[in-house]
Write a structure and sequence with these properties.
This protein is α/β, with parallel strands linked by helices. It has one domain: Mannitol-specific EII, Chain A (3-Layer(aba) Sandwich), CATH 3.40.930. Helices cover 42% and strands 17% of the residues. Strands 1, 2, 3, 4, 5 and 6 form a 6-stranded mixed sheet that branches. A hairpin with a 2-residue loop joins strand 2 and strand 3. Helix 2 runs antiparallel to helix 3 and helix 5 runs antiparallel to helix 6. The longest helix is centred in the N-terminal third of the chain and has 14 residues.
C-alpha cells in the first residue's frame, strides 16, 4: 500500500478551519466530495461519524484517523489535513490532534482499508515523519511529507 498513490494534493487541507472533532471530519468528507472521491457524501459522513461514536480514532502522537466503511464511495479514498488549532479527539494518549487522516472505503474492501490504517499508524512512529508533518504549513508541504516518507508499496 502506497499512501502517496492513494492521496492527491487537492485532498489535503492546511489549515483545516474547524475547531472541533465533528467539524474536522465533516470538512475532510467535504474535501472528498468536492474532488469526486465520493458518490454519496451524506452516507459516507454518516458511516465515519458512526465509527467515531463507537471508539475514538485519536490514536496518539497528535494523530487521528477517522474512518468508515460506506457505499458512499466506489473505492478506498483518503483526505488529510492539519487543524489551525489542536482539536480534542479524546485520543488514547490524552493529547490533542494536530494531524488528521480520513479514510472511507466500500464495505467489501476490508483489506486495503486495514492496510491504509496500519501504514498511517506506522509512519507516525517515525520521528522524522512526525517532524515533517509538524513543519508543514501548506497542503503542498504536507503532501510532500507523505510522499517522501511513504516510498514503499508494502505495509511497513
Amino acid at each position: 500500500m502506497n499512501l502517496a498513490k492513494l492521496i492527491t494534493a487537492d485532498r489535503i487541507r492546511v489549515p483545516l478551519e474547524s475547531t472541533e472533532k465533528i467539524g474536522v471530519i465533516t470538512e475532510l468528507i467535504d474535501v472528498l466530495a468536492q474532488t469526486n472521491g465520493l458518490i454519496d457524501r451524506d452516507i459516507a459522513l454518516e458511516a465515519v461519524l458512526k465509527r467515531e461514536a463507537e471508539r475514538t480514532t485519536g490514536i496518539g502522537y497528535g494523530l487521528a484517523i477517522p474512518h468508515g466503511k460506506s457505499d458512499g464511495c466506489k473505492s478506498l479514498v483518503m483526505a488529510a489535513g492539519k487543524p489551525r488549532d489542536p482539536v480534542d479527539f479524546q485520543s488514547l494518549d490524552g493529547r490533542p490532534v494536530t494531524f488528521v487522516v480520513l479514510l472511507v472505503s466500500p464495505p467489501d474492501q476490508t483489506g486495503p482499508h486495514i492496510q491504509a490504517l496500519a501504514k498511517i499508524s506506522r509512519l507516525m512512529n517515525i520521528d522524522e515523519f512526525r517532524a515533517a508533518v509538524a513543519a508543514a504549513t501548506t497542503s503542498e508541504a504536507l503532501f510532500e511529507a507523505i510522499s517522501s516518507y511513504d516510498t514503499t508499496d508494502s505495509v511497513l
